[in-house]
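Sat 14:20. Reprocessing the chain from the morning session after the first attempt stalled halfway. Input below, unchanged.
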Amino acid sequence: MRFNTVTIKDIAKALGLSTSTVSRALRGGYEISEETKKTVTEYAEKINYRPNPIALSLKERRSYSIGIVVCEIANNFFSQAINGMESVAYTAGYNVTITQSHERFDREVLNVEHLASRSVDGLLISLSSESADVSYLKDLHKKGLPIVLFDRVTSEIDTHKVIADNFKGAYDATDYLIKLGHKRIAHFTSSAHLSVTGERLEGYKAALRDHGIPFNEDFVKFCGHGGINQEEIDDATKELLALNERPDAIFIAQDKLSTGCLHAIKKIAPDYFTGIKIAGFTNSNVVDLFNPPITAVRQPAFEMGQAAMELLIHLIESKMPVTEFETRILQTQLIVNNSKY
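Finished this time. Tokens:
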């Protein structure tokens, strides 16, 4: 059965008015009497009339829709960020279309091209772990598509960006582990080319350096699939266990990797890791239930989503070309035993 929407023609026929009169009455046209406006608007509300978004987009050359591309909606950080984006978008009269790359470059490109072909007014994107080449995004940006990057960003596109203070978050977590007495601290992280990977790695190194602890490359494990491939995390865990000097603590740079690492620990060496201390980036609300427990580096995901959407809508609605861009850096929080540090 085909769904038929109510049109202006239907209202005009029911009220015995012309379609142009109904159209002007709904827009509040000055040439239409107040009595007619009231009759039309009351009837439109009664039958739950909504303007046709396709017709509006053709007329105004805007779709009032925004595309969002993330690696995985089930990721705690991204689901919270999307909530922030939607809270701003819907208030401003925009709808959103959310897609997932699942950490794959080809899926990311397909999603972006699909959104662009649907004439979204702008795009919010966090790059996948495979996205070393962003030339396709650069081309769309040069053609005029407003784009704002968040979390995983690139310096190759001159636009607004919203990120967390990844260096400080990593530094605080590593510093905390060191102050507990640990000196052999492993580091699980994502693809080397990602912005968050480099920033968090540098924070980890800086904390080691400030405490006089030599950096050991063997303790750093890059997981190119960003935690989606459990086998990759298992292999990294086995490599750490094969070292002559095994780590006595782990700093994990990503939400999905944190839970993946716990699975690997329980499966591969539950006895060895019984007393190991773990700190990592995660926005899970149940970290206190994890075993072993995780000291969480929490990003202000909701606020990051809000800020990214606000900046994108500003780009979309600006009457003049925007040539000056900003990178907003929001602070992380270290959560120890449900307390903020």
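The chain is about 45% helix and 15% strand.
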